[in-house]
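Example S7 (structure tokens).
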């Protein structure tokens, strides 16, 4: 599995054919299929998911690839 930190953006985790069940801070669950994008700028209003706020807050970070073995 590879986790990508997109340049100036969120962490991307892709697992084709898999479901991500994410429990949010308020106890609700969100189910996403295939891929999730997790905020790493801290500005999202929909944490832990990216909501595009990184583009408005000037977040800068290099691309990073994390290979989970
Ligand atoms: S990385 Fe996109 S809103 Fe934080």
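Recovered sequence:
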């Amino acid at each position: 599995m590879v986790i990508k930190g997109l340049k100036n953006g969120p962490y991307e985790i892709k697992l084709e054919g898999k479901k991500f069940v994410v429990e949010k801070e308020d106890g609700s669950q969100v189910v996403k299929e295939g891929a999730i994008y997790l905020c790493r700028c801290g500005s999202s209003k929909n944490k832990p998911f990216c909501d595009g706020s990184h583009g408005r807050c000037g977040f800068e970070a290099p691309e990073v690839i994390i290979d989970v073995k």
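Notes on this example. Helices lie at 54-57.
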